[in-house]
Every structure is written in structure tokens, then in C-alpha cells.
Amino acid sequence: MSNSVLSIGGAGHRSLKPLVFLAAAGALDDTDVSLLCIDNDATNGNLSESLEIVHLYNRVRGAQRWLGDSPLFRPRLQLMDDRPWSPLNAQDSEPTLDSYLRHDSMTANAADLASLYEFLYEPDKRKLPVTEGFRGKPSIGAAVYRAAAETGAMTGAVQDGLQRIREELEKGTAQARHARLFTMGSVFGGTGAAGLPTIPSTLIANMRQGADHVISGGAFLLPYFDFNPGSLDQQGPHANPSEFVMMMKDALRYYQLNPSGYQCVYAIGADKWRHVPTPAVGKAEQKNPADLVEFLAAVAASHFLVTYQPAPASQNGHGPKLFVLHRGQEAAFQWADVPEHDRLKPKLAALTRFCFLFLNDYEQELQKAAKGHLKPTWYVRHIQAADVNPSTSEFQNQVKALGDFCRAFLRWWVDLQNNAGLAINLAHTSAFTQRPFVDEAFSTLITGERYGLTSKQAVQKVAGLPFERQPDLIGLGHFVHALATATA
């Protein structure tokens, strides 16, 4: 099965980060995933953070598997491009809708079309620079994205990230008969609302073969945060939270009138909006903390890529299947509210324990091993027995990358539970907010679950596991495999 994921706009990019953590935990199974971020603003802080965590995941995983049959870091997350796909890459330095659609040429050669265009778009919208996104103006973005996606299909430029995704879909349908395409974005802003109905449908419609065998799903993020719009007045046109619900309604009405080919849609929002204290219209300053809605968008992607099965063709014709996520209590969110929690909770719990122990008990010791002074049983059994030289830069870089990833994952847990309009009760994050970590909390790191071992017992279990050779257990992999086994 071929899997591809598109993140569109800030909310889509922020949803990509927890999806990477789910991949690391084993919640995406074994199938590799092709990723493409779509945004006009290549310097967007939310985008940069998500790209960094994808790169970090791939530094830990490497090009080839080295962790044997461990569920951790199994799929390869292949970025189609290190930069976001944008229709503006080949345009002038300050592109506007007028310059992109060549308004001057339109006026000279197609006066009637120019008149219609001028009627549909006010002058201030036509002259708005769009290098930092569409600033809550999805009608502008929809026109630009559809035109650019169709142009890319005609030119077939091999360096175009969207074309690479199209080629992955064509390859997947040829080899496995079906390919899955999942798209994440908001329906109340500019970039996401513009791209959700246009880019996936245009992408599939312009496939050279196999379009009928693409299964398309999307996470539609409804309004879930607000901010003080007055703080952005000096930065030009911008979104306004008071208009989010109206914009959402307009977007959904457009989607209804213009079917986009989705087989299933996950509608995810919040009745208690999180307040963003320092908003920005784009660039590096637009960097929001983790949010529950974005985590649930990643959960929706996991469900779509692993579990969802489309209805037989004979039962289609009634529009996409709609999944609406909800919770059981008014002011709280817990594991029972997480879709497929029976499948996902054990995986996230195991990764949480793994990261806790690696950072608390092993990272510094593995760094010291380069000096040759380390002799504990776990080291002799799982590092020395594997003929690994801990003084090499390759070994130490692997230790650093794994440590950085573990820190990012635990920080994400803390941010997720501290930045919501309701009480989130999924993990006991107080156990790992300061160093050293609280050993006594190890067996209850995940809410509602009591692990059978204390941290000291888990360390002893790692030391007691026999050395095991597997074809794809390489280097540090013997030790990491033992640690993953002890914390599963």
C-alpha cells in the first residue's frame, strides 16, 4: 500500500508533528509514507518545527532499518521536498493575485474575463502580497492553488514536489492497486481552507493512470483557537477570530457544492478555544504550542492509513463518510475520548517509558562510553557484544539524535496538556518536566495505566535480556531493541 500525506497551512503543519510521534511509536505500521508540506510562507515557524522533527525522525531511523522487529521508528517518512510546495516559487519577489493571474495581460487580451475577475475580487485583495499565506482569504488561495496544480500537471516538472506526490500515487496504484492520500488543514483560515478542496482533487484528476484507485481522506480542522486581532493591525490584513465560524460555514458550503473526491472526512474542532497570546501573520514568529485538535488530526491520519476501509463501489454515491470526534465530559479529555485508544494508548505509553528511561538512565552513560570507562552489564551485553565502537562519530551522533527525539517527544506531551481550554488527562507530565526525572512515577506515566515494573526494575530487565542477533539489528540497535522490549 502506498501512503501519502499533505499538510496545508499552519494548522496542517502543526498536525504533522504528532503524526511523526505516532510513526515513532509504531502507530503507522510498516508502510512508508510520502510527505509534502504546502505553504506560500517557507519561513513559517510552525512549518520549520514540523520539518525539523521529520528530519530528526529520519536521522534516528536512518535509510535502513537497524532496530530489528521493534515497532519503534518502523516506517520511512520521505519528504518530497525540504521546502514547502508553493505556486509562487517561480513568481516575482512580491507576488500578488494580480501578478500571479497576469491581470495586465488579461485586461489587454480578454477584457470580459478581466471584468469578471475585477468584479469577484476587490482591489485590496488582488494587490495583497501572498508570500506569507493568504491571511484568512481562502477565495484568493483557491484560485491560485487550483491554477498552479493544473499548470504543474501539464508541465510535469520533475522537480515539483506536487508532481512527485502524483508520481508516488501512480506508482502505488500500479503496484498495489490502491494508494492512500491524506490531507490535513484548517477550514477557517486562508491557506488550509483554500487548499483542502482544490489540491487533492486536482492532484488526483491529473494522474496519468490509477486515479480511480486512490483512496482520499482529510482532517478538516474546525475553529479551535483565538487571539487578539488588534495586535496584528500593524502587520497588514490578517485573520480575525470573530470571523472564524462564518468563514468555516462558507468553506463547508463551498465543499458541499464542489465535491473534492474525499472518501472520508474527519471533522475536528473545539468548543473551548485555546487563546494564543502572541499571534503572528506568518514567518518565523508564527510558532504555536502543541494542541489537542492537532493531535486528534494525527490520530485521524493514523486511522485512515492503517484501519479505514472504504465502502464497496456499489455502496458509494452518498458523499464522503464523515467522522465527527467528540468527548465524554464537558471540561476534560481523557484516553476514553481518543479514537482507537485501545490500539494507540499502548504504543504511546511504551514510547513514553522508552524516552523516560533513555534520557534518565542511559544517554549520559552512552556519551561517556566514548572514553572507554563503561562496564555495567547492559553495556557489556548489548553494546560490547555487538562489536560496536562507542567512540566513533556515527555512534555518538546516533545517541544524540535519539536523545533529541526523546526530549522533543516528552516536551510535546507537556505542551499538549498545558495549552488547552480544558483539562487534558493523558500523561503524568510532571514526572519529566525537570531533571532528574521522578523515578517513582515511572509505572504510572500514562493516565489510567499501571506498568508492572518500576524504573529500576526496567533497567534490570534491560541488563538481563540476552544478546540477540537479528539481520537488521545494527550498532546501537541491539541496546535500543532491548530497551524497547523492556518498556513495551
Q: In this structure, how is the largest beta sheet organized?
A: 7 strands, parallel
- Cα(first) to Cα(last) distance is 27 Å
The assigned structural class equals alpha/beta
Q: What is the CATH fold-level name of the largest domain?
A: Rossmann fold
Summary tags:
single chain; 488 residues; alpha/beta; Rossmann fold; 3 domains; seven-stranded parallel β-sheet; 17 helices; 11 strands; globular
In short:
The protein has 488 residues and is α/β, with parallel strands linked by helices. The protein folds into three domains: 2-94 and 133-326, Rossmann fold, CATH 3.40.50; 96-129, no CATH class; 342-487, no CATH class.
Describe this structure in words.
By secondary structure, this protein is of the alpha/beta class. The protein folds into three domains: 2-94 and 133-326, Rossmann fold; 96-129, no CATH class; 342-487, no CATH class. Helix content is 44%, strand content 10%. The chain is built from 17 helices and eleven strands. The chain has helices at residues 9-25, 45-61, 97-100, 103-109, 111-120, 123-126, 138-155, 161-176, 191-195, 199-205, 244-257, 292-306, 341-368, 377-382, 393-418, 455-464, 477-487; strands at 2-8, 33-38, 77-79, 179-186, 214-221, 225-226, 264-268, 274-275, 321-324, 332-334, 423-425. Helix 1 crosses helix 12 (292-306), helix 13 (341-368) packs across helix 17 (477-487) and helix 16 packs across helix 17 (477-487). The relative contact order is 0.13. The model is unreliable at 132-136 and 153-159 (pLDDT under 50).
